[in-house]
């Protein structure tokens, strides 16, 4: 299905699961113009593979992970594009940095030589109400504007927000990257814990 999407003109592909992504990258190695985005939660033991095989990481929420990615980025590759994951809904079960801690994390990442801070990513709490959706995405857009003012030298041009169920609200609030896997490829089959 990814090859069919590529044939139709799609070039940016997002992946949540590292092992699955690496298998896909191997099978699609002949397509050298794919831009690979890692959008899943990132643990220390996975940073080397992500640093070596991806063009973007959307889920940075800790300085430790960012430092590992920068240190492990191969010298022959361009700096890794990264987005900070903002916990916009304040859910303790969600990954992401709190709004108050965002400027300090951004400042730390801007000092890392092999990362290029591009913007923010968020996964708001699910809602069927368009205004609730828009309010959450507006918070992310406002946070990005605040970062742009504070760090004018940074290429902060990316709002990675919105999925198949709330893409209209995300786009209305300025999303530049949306994740539409379910809309394009259908629902994922259930995963076993061993697949993670």
From TrEMBL:
Read off the Pfam families from this record. Answer: Ala_racemase_N
Q: Where is the Alanine racemase N-terminal domain positioned along the sequence? A: 2-189
Record's keyword annotation contains Heme: no
| Classification via InterPro entries | Ala_racemase_N, PLP-binding_barrel, PyrdxlP_homeostasis
- The entry's keywords: Pyridoxal phosphate
Family matches, as PANTHER family:
PROLINE SYNTHETASE CO-TRANSCRIBED BACTERIAL HOMOLOG PROTEIN, PYRIDOXAL PHOSPHATE HOMEOSTASIS PROTEIN
Instruction: Give the protein family.
Output: Belongs to the pyridoxal phosphate-binding protein YggS/PROSC family.
Protein role: Pyridoxal 5'-phosphate (PLP)-binding protein, which is involved in PLP homeostasis.
- Protein name in UniProt: Pyridoxal phosphate homeostasis protein
């Amino acid at each position: 299905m990814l090859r069919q999407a590529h044939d139709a003109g799609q070039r940016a592909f997002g992946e949540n699961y590292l092992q699955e992504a690496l298998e896909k990258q191997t099978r699609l190695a002949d397509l050298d113009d794919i831009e690979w985005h890692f959008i899943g939660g990132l643990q220390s033991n996975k940073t080397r593979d992500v640093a070596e095989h991806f063009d973007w990481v959307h889920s940075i929420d800790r300085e430790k992970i960012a430092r590992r990615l920068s240190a492990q980025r191969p010298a022959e590759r361009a700096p890794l594009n990264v987005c900070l994951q903002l916990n916009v809904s304040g859910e303790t079960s969600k990954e992401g940095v709190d709004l108050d801690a965002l400027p300090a994390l951004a400042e730390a990442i801007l000092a890392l030589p092999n990362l290029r801070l591009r913007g923010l990513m968020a996964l708001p709490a699910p809602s069927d109400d368009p205004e609730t959706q828009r309010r959450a995405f507006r918070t992310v857009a406002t946070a990005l504007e605040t970062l742009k003012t504070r760090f004018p030298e940074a290429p902060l041009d990316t709002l990675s927000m919105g999925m198949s169920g709330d893409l209209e609200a995300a786009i209305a609030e300025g999303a530049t990257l949306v994740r539409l896997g379910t809309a394009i490829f259908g629902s994922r089959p259930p995963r076993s814990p061993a697949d993670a």
